[in-house]
């Protein structure tokens, strides 16, 4: 009876407790390694970083094509389109999701990434897109049934220099009501062509 109640509550609330986690994200882009802390749940994901003394937070809500960048030291929030090429260059998962909607995923095997059993897949663009690319391997991605987030990905798109992202040190995390919201007192700016 207890088990049935837990399953019903989970189904009714839409919360997949196994998909809620925090981890270290190692993101290599243009020859530079960045280390973010990623927080993921069914509501969305956020990256927190501190580079050269500048703190920042990138927020992407589930189902939204908007990206929010928080600059806590300045109490500033910048909002813009997640489909903007400059935004996608700084959000490896957002970039993958953007190309996935028109691509073809091909399963090529299984691998374990940092202790997590994953399905290894390739994302191919078999039709010409707005960038003129056709029949090209766009991404190699490792996904897990346990987490609703890529455990590792490699971006093969021309000009990306095989950008990589990999998660390590995954731990259970429970979001609060403000995890994916702009904090009170922040100045909000709309920036259509922004770059975090």
Verbal overview:
By secondary structure, the protein is mostly beta strands. The chain has one domain (2-190): outer membrane lipoprotein receptor (LolB), chain A. Helices cover 13% and strands 47% of the residues. The protein has 3 helices and 12 strands. It has helices at residues 2-13, 85-89, 92-100; strands at 21-29, 32-41, 44-51, 54-61, 66-71, 76-81, 104-113, 116-125, 136-143, 152-155, 163-172, 187-190. A 12-stranded mixed beta sheet has the order 7-8-9-10-11-1-2-3-4-5-6-12, with helices on one face. The chain is globular, with a radius of gyration of 18 Å. The termini are far apart. 26% of the residues are buried. The model is unreliable at 1-18 (pLDDT under 50).
- Kindly, what is the distance between the CA atoms of the first and last residues, rounded to a whole number of angstroms? 49 Å
Spatial strand order of the main sheet: 7-8-9-10-11-1-2-3-4-5-6-12
The strand count comes to 12
* Rg (CA only): 18 Å
